[in-house]
Amino acid sequence: MISAIRASQRLDSRGNPTVQVEVVTPKGIFRALVPSGASTGQHEAVELRDKVASTYEGKGVTKAVHNVQDVIGPALLKKNFDPQTQLREIDQFMRDLDGTPNKAHLGANAILGVSMACARAGAAAAGVPLYEFLRTLAGTTGPYIMPVPFFNVLNGGVHSGNTMAFQEMMLAPVGASSFEEAMRLGAETYHRLKKVISQQYGAPATGIGDEGGFAPPITLPEQALDLLQTAVADTGYTGKIKFGIDPASSEFFKEDGSYDVGFKDKTSNVLSSQEMQDLYMRLIRKYPIVLLEDPFAEDDWGSWTAFQKVCPIELVGDDLLVTNVERVRIAAEKKACNSMLLKVNQIGTVTEAIEAAQLAYKLGWSVFVSHRSGETTDDFIADLTVALSTGHLKSGAPCRGERVVKYNRLMDIESELKSAGKPCLYAGESFSFPSKLATK
């Protein structure tokens, strides 16, 4: 049983405050650090900030810390929940205690910290690794699936200071034979990309963005994809490494329904929804792109539905869905996408994130686990990815400790599973639907 719940203010990877929660049980102290996004969907669960301008530029989280210490903690302790068997009840109790549909009262950053720490406490009580505990909770069956890492190696949008509208350009080593080999292919290509950028734009252009990706002085997506193709060819991994794109288009959507892909430049470059669709299709035909995330704004349903009819690759909803079962149901009715991005802090509890993934699977969709731009050294999502057999995740470039800690944890899990003789498969080309691997 839980004997104490504590919280404190710590820093994330951008130097902004975040919430750390400690749950104390007879098995020990179990911590969780909560991440934060830069490009956030307006339908996400609410992150509670102090908004006191004189402290951390208004980004302090002492209110959320207070809510854990003085509201959530005491209330949970009175209920005497067992985190090993009652994580769903713990999460539901906190949702009821908050009393709002988006956790605006207590704060998703407060609630999620407790949820994650309780999951770790539950795993310890059960005497199993976190991924095993979450796998049982989710009812996942079949072989263990190691994901394809999608490395965000070129940054634009609100993640960088260049003039490229698209936020992320990703490398996906689908041709690797294991997660560990995928890390090697990705890291080698990342280092080669740095040299290519330095040769074309000079050494100062090799500075990195929030997620460890480079942010050279480029504007067009074609410029970014050409850089990736050159780096992949130079390393000899053409065919083994494919690409993913996250335009994060809600950031440059205009009220009249158009998109300003020049929003970071001095002159606008406004495209209609159809022109955006045409742009994406040209890129898909020209480059080995296997995944496209948030190509349209979060409430531009018509554009999503129209594009889904012709899009030949995985079409991921992030801001569109915000890991929320209600948004997933709406998207399914409108036939807007075929994949859900999973970010635990978008919804605010571990079990709600799992429920959203389960619904996505029932709809025949894929699930793509993601970090946030304001990350921490917490590696929870690595275990969650394996637990849900999602087949792919993104945790930034193979650079910066808060990114690499997730990748290192996944290599540890792969090693543990293989050492124990458990069935462990790398998703590879089947990253969208890794369940197919079990039948091969």
TrEMBL record:
Its EC number is 4.2.1.11. PROSITE patterns: ENOLASE (PS00164). Pathway: Carbohydrate degradation; glycolysis; pyruvate from D-glyceraldehyde 3-phosphate: step 4/5. GO terms for biological process: glycolytic process. Residues 2-134 form the Enolase N-terminal domain. Mg(2+) is required for catalysis and for stabilizing the dimer. The active site is at E211 (proton donor), K343 (proton acceptor). InterPro entries: Enolase, Enolase-like_C_sf, Enolase-like_N, Enolase_C, Enolase_CS, Enolase_N. Its cofactor is Mg(2+). Residues 143-434 form the Enolase C-terminal TIM barrel domain. GO terms for molecular function: magnesium ion binding; phosphopyruvate hydratase activity. Substrate binds at H159, E168, E293, D318, S370, H371, R372, S373, K394. It comes from the Eukaryota. It catalyses: (2R)-2-phosphoglycerate = phosphoenolpyruvate + H2O. Pfam families: Enolase_C, Enolase_N. GO terms for cellular component: phosphopyruvate hydratase complex. Mg(2+) binds at D246, E293, D318. Keywords: Glycolysis, Lyase, Magnesium, Metal-binding. NCBIfam families: eno. Belongs to the enolase family. This is Enolase. The lineage of its organism: Eukaryota, Fungi, Dikarya, Ascomycota, Pezizomycotina.
